[in-house]
Specification:
There is one protein chain. With 155 residues, the protein is an alpha+beta fold. Strands 1-2-4-3 form a four-stranded mixed beta sheet, with helices on both faces. The protein is built from four helices and four strands, in the order ααβββαβα. It has a single domain, classed as Ribosomal Protein S5, domain 2. Strand 3, helix 3 and strand 4 form a beta-alpha-beta unit.
Length: 155
């Protein structure tokens, strides 16, 4: 087992191989991990809603972090939950600088229509989720600008 791991690490350093990009990572420091971190954001009112998602935000003054709550109640299949999480993490990762100093929490709050989207990870479902997540992140970014703009100029 360890030989396989060391070979994989060496392969990344081999000339001609594709190097890993550190900028494409989504480290633990960029995630809400503990229950108290989630509950401190949940205590606040939701900023915006779409048909399926709700977004919350809390100023922290530290790096931007993302928390995801994608429950079995609204997405019964693990394939669907994982797809939604991947889409949300990627959308947040590419725009993380816009949310500096804030904890952002995205929660799924409604079921997807099984008749319109029968497949658990279909392209239409992924497009719907990506569109709603993008819309919520746009709204959250505008809310952050509005709230940061309301602070006194002395800060």
């Amino acid at each position: 087992m360890s030989a396989v791991r060391s070979d994989a690490g060496e392969a990344a350093a081999v000339p001609g191989s594709i190097p890993l990009q550190a900028s494409a990572a989504f480290p633990k420091a960029a995630r809400l991990l503990k229950t108290d971190e989630f509950s401190s954001v949940f205590r606040l009112r939701p900023w915006r809603r779409t048909a399926h998602f709700v977004i919350y935000g809390k100023p922290t003054g530290h790096e931007a972090r993302l928390g995801l709550v994608i429950g079995k109640k609204y997405a019964a299949r693990a394939v669907t939950r994982n797809m939604v999480k991947r889409l949300a993490r990627e959308a947040f990762r590419t725009r993380r600088a816009e949310f500096a100093g804030w904890d952002i929490l995205l929660r799924l709050h409604a079921r997807f229509d099984k008749k319109a989207m029968p497949s658990a990870a279909s392209a239409p479902l992924a497009a719907l989720c990506a569109g709603e997540i993008r819309e919520l992140l746009d709204r959250a970014a505008r809310e952050i600008v509005r709230r940061n703009g309301a602070k006194p100029a002395s800060e």
